[in-house]
User: What shape does this take?
Amino acid sequence: MNLKATLAIAAGLALASAGAAATDLVIATVNNGHMIEMQKLGKHFEAANPDIKLKWVTLEEGVLRQRVTTDIATKGGQFDVMTIGMYETPIWGKKGWLNEIKPDATYDVDDLLPAMRGGLSVDGKLYAAPFYGESSMLMYRKDLTDKAGIKFEERPTWDQVRDAASKIHDPKAGVYGICLRGKPGWGDNMAFLTTMVNSFGGQWFDMAWKPQLESKPWHDAVTFYVDLLKKYGPPGSSANSFNEILALYNEGKCGMWIDATIAASFITDPKQSKVADKVAFAQGPYSVTQKGANWLWAWALAIPAGSKNTDAAQKFINWSTSKAYIQLVAKEKGWAAVPTGTRKSTYATPEFLKAARFAEAEKKAIDSANPNDSTLPKSPYVGVQFAAIPEFQAIGVAVGQQMSSALAGKSTVDAALKASQLAADREMKKGGYYK
Assistant: This one.
């Protein structure tokens, strides 16, 4: 065999082995707009890292939670990168189920909003990097409040919100005073209701981990909520979640709405909303205290301890949660489409502030939420609108059903809270928190 042929074979073998060495990085994510965009832009990451091939597993939120929870608890190793939230991160980080996120020198970890960094850290170590973040705030029809002579403070009280709802409620004209979540679920009606209970001076558990569902703050908050929606809400509120209310709002049927800050980008979009030019924003209302009056959430990317491709996973997370990634989305889709709620630099960008008139209110809401200090009495748990303990999912679902039932008039507030206390007590005893 001549030298040329030998070299050609050697080159072919080298190429083959280089091809075989490419790492398949399996990423489990949720099927929402920002994540779909991340998949499309993944080609830029692959071009810069030809030795890494991205494999996507895209699932509905509920299915995603089940799949990643099962995989991580059994150390299945199916995924290299998981999309998880602020609920799972502190629990799994503490259990040693996640690898620490170690950003490279260009990442600028100090640019992450403190609330996001704090909510995704355990003992000062970052265990998931925020892809986009949100809080909750009051979104209202300024044309209606102006007409009624209502002027909201930056953070109004619940009494002021109720008074405003009574003045702008006009069902004959197809406008309801206020729209709020009523559909049962720990991340659904209970996300909203927990912030309300916090602001009335309540908490899920006291320092001995005893559930507090029959306490005065819970009773006051839930009674207020049920009365408010029965008088000034749309019919069938007990079945309404984010998407149902978004559709009502965009049709011009809600005078006010307190929900995720991410909603602001949809209700101010003239392609989706009939009232896009009439919307204004205020901070989440409060009653006794401003503590925990608005929630905090992030969809974040984490590396399960079972991954065999941690270096490639770190590289991908560095890329997809970086300042450069936000610039890339802005370049490809415009500043109104960038994932928000994660970095200080986004809110210091004039083009973003111009494209997103809700930006200032959104950032204020995120900055004011503290998952480590979200209740007036001292609490043993981390989380604003949830308690970051494994038992909370079951408790939140059970309580959510009771609250929805009270809203629908199928039970009284007292009966619903009593049943909720029993369900929570049972779960906490089962979890070994007390006897």
